[in-house]
Every structure is written in structure tokens, then in C-alpha cells.
């Protein structure tokens, strides 16, 4: 800042006079600064709505439109329920399964032919070299203190497993066999024998430690389970298997009827949540479109803020920011798209369930601008129970790629359409269509406008500086002239007086 001493000769408050003169010159620059502030506020408003659309699309709509949202099932069993255990999964097919167990599957079993130790307190959690088995291991050469022993291999069901007697215990060896050979191996401390079972085939073993020390041989041949499913005789190699997405466990001989249905209550809960989220998103957009705009409240200049209290500034700017997206073309198109996505029929495979209204969901009055309501829970429940797949298709169906999208579910359709709106907002405001970025892109429409305003404001400030300097030079010239005239006047006065 330049320090100036002015008004010495004239006695004028030059700084105040120039400040008053500069006010008129500063008006165009202040207006551009106000325009810049308005654009920045509008960009922030787009960012806020962009974040809400992203949240609705990625965190709510994405989860809803997945078929798994509608895959909740209930399962009931009647008959000899102790003979068969059943569990529904997301892929369970609604229907009835009658399971008649004739005999259970018997896995291959290989058990030590005699006790492997005479010690009833044999420790299974210490290294093998610290047990009585050490006599059968080969020491590492040259000898070490304490002694260490060479690793060796065992083979179970053609799977070669490396054992280190210096670190592996009987417990860890059983664990390696179970995880690597696909059988269940354990030590029976009561009978002091090792047993292996399972694998879907007759267990084979090889290796001196298995055959001689642990006294294991070839396992018995496995036996398939004999059963009937809905009257059809069949076999299973294991007592645990799946049928139509139902996990079944055979526990004994007997007959059990399994009934699988869609969990209507959970499906309805998911649909209600979707409608709530949809209505909230649509309401947010409609509120922005209809927000009051107060044209008399423009952004405050720095000088205006200095003359106001903080609370008054806050209230003023609240009015100035209102209505920045009023009747916005992007949001208007989005609101229309959302309503269209929900109302356009979907080829679900069932002509009775092609629209939301057909399953009891419809919009409210015209004044509510597309808000959805479940107008008949009875109708919705009936549709879910009668044809759950049609309801799933109505919401989540991907379609075959046709441009008319007549076979695309309302949820999937809306998910696609929202991306188009996010891309338009990104082009306009410089936001991201994929994440809530804090840095705006300068090549957007508003970004380019801000760049232009910044350039014009900078040039305007340069011009104001030049004008201000010119005023100070003019007043300085006036002071110099007045000083000269005063000096001449004093000279003449002195001359006449003498």
C-alpha cells in the first residue's frame, strides 16, 4: 500500500474525496464479483444435489435393484424333522420337497489297528521328536545338540504332506492331513488310536510313519446315502447336499416334507424402504426446482458486509442463495425421468404384473408430483405370494438391451437414467458422476464462466488502480499549484507592504 501525505496546502481531505470518486468507478467490478459469488453458490448447490443423487443411486438403489433383495425365503418342515435338517438360502426355489431317507451315507474310514502308544497321558501337542516316536526318526548329520531330525513325507489320498518332527506335533499333523487331503483326521485319546474319515473315496495311505507308527491302512469303501426326493429314488455321496437351493442334511432314516416360500414380509419391507428412499430423492429435487428466488437479495460486497452484523449477513446470504436451481433444466428432466421410470410398463413374463399399480403401488395426487404410495398392501402381498419372480422382474430385470427398454425393471431403469443426469451435472458444474469430489473441474460450463469472471475482475482492478493513481496525481498537481500561488501571493504582499 502506498503511503501518501495529502491536503497540506489545500486543507482538503483528499483520501475521502478520492474514495468517494472511486465508488462510481468500482460499481462494474463489484457487480462482476457478485456474479462470481452467485456462480460459486450455484456450483455448490449442484455439488450438494450431486452428492444426494450419488448416495441414492450407489448406496440405496444399487442394493435394492439386486435380485438378492427379493430372495428372502421362509422354510418349514413337517414329518420326521429329526431325520432331515433343511436351511433356505437366497437361491432357494419356492416349492415343496418330500425327502425320504432310506439309509445314510457312510464315509470311508481308516483307523489304527491297535493303540499307537501305551501311555494314556500321551501328549499330542508337543513336537514329535519329544515323544516316544523319536526312535523311528533319522537324525540330521552332522549331529547337533539338542538333536534334530530329518523331515519326511506321508501320503493320504495321493496328497503328499511334508512333516517336520522337530516342530510338528501329532495335533498339527492331523490338522495338515485334514486341510490338505480333504479328510477328517483326529486322535482318540480314549482308545489311543488315529482315525481318518471322509474324502468321497476309499482312503489310501502311504509312508512308514502312517502305516507302521500310526498303524493305519486303507480305508473302508464309502457308501452312498439312499433316499427319495419327491418320490424319485436317488443317491448322494454325502449326507449334506443342496436341492433347488435348499441346503439339506440327512441325520437319520425317516420322511420329512420341506416347504419353501418367499418371505413376503421381508420383501414388502424392502419395497417400502425403496419407496421411502425414492420419495425422499424426488422431494429433494422438487424442492430445489420450486425454491423461492429473492431477486432483490444479491451477494453482498465487502463494503456492505463491513456495515452489517454477522447475523444479518447470514440471513441476507440465506435469501441470496435461495432459488439458485429454481426451474433448472437438468433437475426438471431428472424429475420427469424418475416419474417415467416408475410408470412405464415392464414385460415381466406375467401380463397381470407389468406395472407398479398392478401390485398395489401408485402415485398420489397431482399436487404431490409423483410421490409413490402402497395403496393396497393386500394386493402387493398377493402378488409376491402368487408370482414372486414377476415382482422381482418388475423391479430388477436387466432386459435384453433393446432401446425401448420395455423389459427393463423399474429399479434398473432408474439406476441407468440417474447416471445420465449425473453426467449432465458434471458437465455443467464440474462435479464427478462417480464420486463426491471436493475439487471442481475447471473445464465445466460454470468453471469456464468463473475463469472468465476472474480474468475480467483482475483487469477491472488494474483499471481501478490506474484511475485512483490518476486522481492522486491530479490532486497532487493542484496542491503544487496552490503552493506556488501562495508563495507568489506572499511575495507580492511583502513587496507592497514595504
Please characterize this protein's 3D structure.
It contains eleven helices and 16 strands. The protein is an alpha+beta fold and 498 residues long. Strand 10 (225-229) and strand 11 form a beta hairpin. The protein folds into three domains: 44-68 and 266-448, no CATH class; 73-105 and 224-262, no CATH class; 109-213, no CATH class.
What string, H for helix and E for strand, traces the elements in order? HEEEEEEHEEEHEEEEEHHHHEEHHHH
* Strand segment tally: 16
User: Low-confidence parts lasting 5 or more residues at pLDDT below 50?
Assistant: none
Please state the CA-atom Rg, rounded to the nearest Å. Answer: 43 Å
Overall pLDDT, averaged? 89
Shape: elongated
* Estimated structural class: alpha+beta
Which oligomeric state applies?
single chain
Give the CA-CA distance, first to last residue.
48 Å
**Count of all domains:** 3
Key phrases:
single chain; 498 residues; alpha+beta; five-stranded antiparallel β-sheet; three-stranded antiparallel β-sheet; 11 helices
Write the topology of this structure.
Layout: H1 14-65, E1 73-79, E2 84-87, E3 95-103, E4 109-111, E5 152-156, E6 159-163, H2 170-181, E7 184-188, E8 193-197, E9 205-206, H3 208-213, E10 225-229, E11 232-236, E12 240-243, E13 246-250, E14 254-262, H4 264-290, H5 302-306, H6 310-321, H7 329-343, E15 361-363, E16 372-374, H8 377-386, H9 388-396, H10 410-429, H11 445-497
Antiparallel strand pairs: 1-14, 2-13, 3-10, 3-14, 4-8, 5-6, 5-9, 7-8, 10-11, 12-13, 15-16
Helix pairs in contact: 1-4, 1-10, 1-11, 4-7, 4-8, 7-10, 8-9
Amino acid at each position: 500500500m502506498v503511503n501518501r501525505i495529502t491536503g497540506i496546502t489545500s486543507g482538503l481531505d483528499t483520501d475521502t474525496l478520492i474514495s468517494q470518486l472511486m465508488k462510481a468507478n468500482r460499481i462494474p467490478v463489484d457487480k462482476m464479483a457478485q456474479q462470481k459469488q452467485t456462480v460459486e453458490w450455484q456450483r455448490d448447490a449442484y455439488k450438494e444435489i450431486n452428492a444426494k443423487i450419488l448416495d441414492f443411486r450407489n448406496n440405496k438403489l444399487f442394493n435394492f435393484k439386486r435380485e438378492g433383495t427379493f430372495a428372502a425365503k421362509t422354510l418349514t418342515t413337517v414329518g420326521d424333522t429329526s431325520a432331515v435338517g433343511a436351511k433356505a438360502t437366497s437361491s432357494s426355489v419356492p416349492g415343496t420337497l418330500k425327502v425320504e431317507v432310506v439309509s445314510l451315507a457312510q464315509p470311508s474310514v481308516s483307523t489304527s489297528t491297535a493303540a499307537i502308544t501305551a501311555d494314556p497321558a500321551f501328549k499330542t501337542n508337543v513336537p514329535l521328536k519329544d515323544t516316544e516316536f523319536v526312535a523311528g526318526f533319522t537324525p540330521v548329520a552332522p549331529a547337533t545338540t539338542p538333536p534334530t531330525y530329518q523331515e519326511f513325507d506321508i501320503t493320504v489320498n495321493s496328497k503328499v504332506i511334508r512333516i517336520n518332527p522337530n516342530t510338528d506335533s501329532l495335533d498339527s499333523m492331523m490338522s495338515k492331513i485334514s486341510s490338505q487331503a480333504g479328510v477328517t483326521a483326529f486322535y482318540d485319546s480314549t482308545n489311543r488310536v488315529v482315525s481318518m474319515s471322509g474324502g468321497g473315496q476309499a482312503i489310501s495311505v502311504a509312508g512308514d510313519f502312517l502305516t507302521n507308527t500310526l498303524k493305519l491302512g486303507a480305508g473302508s469303501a464309502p457308501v452312498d446315502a439312499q433316499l427319495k426326493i419327491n418320490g424319485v429314488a436317488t443317491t448322494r455321496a454325502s449326507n449334506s447336499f443342496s436341492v433347488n437351493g435348499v441346503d439339506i442334511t440327512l441325520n437319520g432314516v425317516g420322511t420329512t416334507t420341506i416347504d419353501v416360500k418367499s418371505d413376503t414380509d421381508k420383501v414388502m419391507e424392502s419395497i417400502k424402504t425403496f419407496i421411502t428412499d425414492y420419495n425422499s430423492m424426488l422431494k429433494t429435487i422438487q424442492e430445489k426446482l420450486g425454491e423461492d428466488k429473492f431477486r432483490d437479495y444479491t451477494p453482498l460486497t465487502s463494503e456492505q458486509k463491513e456495515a452489517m452484523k454477522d447475523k444479518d449477513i447470514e440471513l441476507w446470504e440465506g435469501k441470496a442463495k435461495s432459488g439458485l436451481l429454481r426451474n433448472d433444466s437438468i433437475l426438471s428432466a431428472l424429475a420427469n425421468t424418475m416419474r417415467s421410470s416408475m410408470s412405464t410398463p415392464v414385460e415381466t413374463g406375467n401380463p397381470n404384473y407389468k406395472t407398479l399399480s398392478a401390485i398395489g403401488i401408485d402415485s398420489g395426487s397431482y399436487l404431490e408430483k409423483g410421490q409413490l404410495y402402497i395403496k393396497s398392501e393386500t394386493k402387493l402381498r398377493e402378488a409376491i405370494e402368487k408370482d414372486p419372480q414377476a415382482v422381482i422382474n418388475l423391479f430388477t430385470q436387466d432386459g435384453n438391451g433393446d432401446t425401448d427398454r420395455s423389459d427393463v425393471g423399474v429399479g434398473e431403469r432408474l439406476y441407468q437414467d440417474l447416471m445420465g443426469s449425473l453426467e449432465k451435472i458434471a458437465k455443467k458444474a464440474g462435479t464427478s458422476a462417480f464420486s463426491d469430489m471436493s475439487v471442481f473441474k475447471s473445464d465445466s460450463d460454470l468453471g469456464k464462466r468463473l475463469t472468465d469472471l476472474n480474468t475480467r475482475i483482475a483487469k477491472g482492478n488494474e483499471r481501478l488502480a490506474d484511475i485512483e493513481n490518476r486522481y492522486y496525481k491530479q490532486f497532487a498537481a493542484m496542491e503544487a499549484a496552490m503552493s506556488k500561488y501562495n508563495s507568489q501571493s506572499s511575495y507580492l504582499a511583502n513587496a507592497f507592504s514595504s
